[in-house]
Amino acid sequence: MPPLRFQGSINDVAMSTVMDPEILKAACIVFATVPIILVYPFVQKYFVQGTMIGAVKG
Questions:
Q1: Separation CA 33–CA 14 (nearest Å)
Q2: What is the model's pTM?
Q3: Which of 9, 19, 34, 41 has a CA 20 to 30 Å removed from the CA of 57?
Q4: What is the pLDDT of residues 2-57, one digit of tens each?
Q5: What is the pLDDT of residue 14?
């Protein structure tokens, strides 16, 4: 007996959701910003040092 095939299977719904351009764009933004947010607190002192070195006293 062949396996039953439904008209709108769960896989079709999942793939249409994944391929939505707005969701893909949002995922790209999250994957680009989360590492920056996680690393910045650890390297913040170097940014401050660079700003102070480049500052002009006057």
A1: 25
A2: 0.49
A3: 41
A4: 666 656 566 666 666 556 888 889 999 999 999 999 999 999 999 888 888 887 77
A5: 60
* Rg, C-alpha atoms of the chain: 24
Q: Where are the domains of the chain?
A: 10-54
> Which residue is it, tokens 């396996």?
3
d(CA 17, CA 23): 8
Query: Is the four-CA dihedral 3, 5, 10, 13 of positive or negative sign?
Result: positive
Question: Is the Cβ–Cβ distance between 41 and 35 less than 8 Å?
Answer: no
Q: How far apart are CA 27 and CA 21, in angstroms?
A: 10
Distance of CA 30 to the CA centre of its chain: 2
